[in-house]
Amino acid sequence: MKLAKRLSLVILLAVGMSFGSFAASKNWEVARAEHVNSSKTVMREGEFEIRAGSGQVIVQSNHPVQVKVFTILGRLVSSETVSSGSYRFQLPAHGVYIVKIGDRTCKIAV
Which of 20, 58, 62, 79 could form a disulfide with 51 if both were Cys (CB 3.0 to 4.6 A apart)? Predict the structure, then answer.
């Protein structure tokens, strides 16, 4: 019986942690012109652009695209599909991050 309770607790914690990592990803918001202008371009492709500055990452895209942000150690910080337009995500701390947008990957430092 104790083993069943422990197993249930482990499953609940795992499910809660997985939902927790995606709950934080809902912090993408529409980027205003001053956010875009105060950031530096990190990567530009025909369909999208990634910019970084002031502890945030900004994604500009012509169509909806999946964006994932990881710490340099590989921990998922955000996973979100953003619509066309400019969106920003406030990063939890200064440092180096990996941003994956569509099938492209780049490194940013903020």
Answer: 58
